[in-house]
Write a structure and sequence with these properties.
Blueprint (H helix, E strand, L loop, with lengths): L1 H29 L6 H18 L7 E2 L1 E7 L5 E7 L8 E2 L18 E4 L6 H9 L3 E5 L5 H12 L4 E5 L7 E5 L2 E4 L6 H10 L19
Parallel strand pairs: 1-4, 5-7, 6-7
Antiparallel strand pairs: 2-3, 3-9, 6-8, 8-9
């Protein structure tokens, strides 16, 4: 009992710290002056050049990655192979659904406890995973009570987002960069374990990167 309370307190403290960091970043952004516009414009020019160069030469779909999932004894599937991180503007042909990494759009999906009722563009959501978020997805086979409970959880958890993915294999799935698992319900103990390990976890390519200021729908 004492250990469970300690883990819960530690997790809540970490979430609170991430929320404070996110709020601090928002305050810094509001304090930017007009004098920074020159730097921003220059950055956009350079970034635009990079985006053009990073797209597929044939103008078609970009490759997401190469590899396969390997399932661990804990039920978590880990991507065994390369997960590219190029910024692209075109559609990405991901090898997994929902995707857990690979090329993605330069703009991330807002993931500061954001819950979406419509399906997202994978290219934005994958960028959120790169920032260390956990993506909760469900299809029409998920019980309404579970969807409601997970919605409430995500809403109060920075670096998380939730959306429907109708063609995913299982009713409820959790994804992080390079990792994914299916859970039986909102009360499945594996939900807590996944959030604890992978939200801003060691797998995160860009820890502490923002989850606001991106795409909001």
């Amino acid at each position: 009992m004492g250990s469970a309370k300690k883990n819960s307190s530690t997790r809540q403290a970490r979430i609170a710290e991430m929320r404070r960091a996110e709020q601090a970043r928002e305050r810094r952004n509001r304090l930017l002056t007009i004098g920074t516009s020159v730097v921003i414009v220059a950055g956009l020019v350079v970034g635009g050049t990079f985006l053009i160069r990073s797209q597929s030469d044939d103008g078609g779909k970009a490759d997401a990655s190469k590899g396969k999932f390997v399932t661990g004894s804990d039920g978590v599937k880990t991507w065994d192979g390369e997960l590219t991180q190029n910024h692209v503007q075109n559609t990405v042909d991901y090898l997994m659904n929902p995707p857990v990494g690979g090329d993605h759009n330069a703009v991330w999906q807002n993931c500061n406890g954001d819950v979406y009722t419509d399906e997202l563009k994978n290219e934005h959501a994958v960028h959120s995973l790169e920032h260390g978020s956990v993506w909760v997805t469900y299809n029409d086979k998920a019980p309404e009570a579970d969807v409601k409970a997970l919605t409430e959880r995500v809403k109060k958890t920075p670096y998380s987002l939730m959306s429907p993915v109708e063609d995913q294999k299982d009713p409820i799935m959790l994804s992080a960069w390079g990792h994914q698992r299916t859970v039986k319900s909102a009360t499945d103990p594996d939900v807590d374990k996944f959030f604890e390990k992978y939200l801003q976890g060691e797998q995160t390519p860009e820890p502490g990167a923002p989850c606001t200021g991106g795409v909001s729908k």
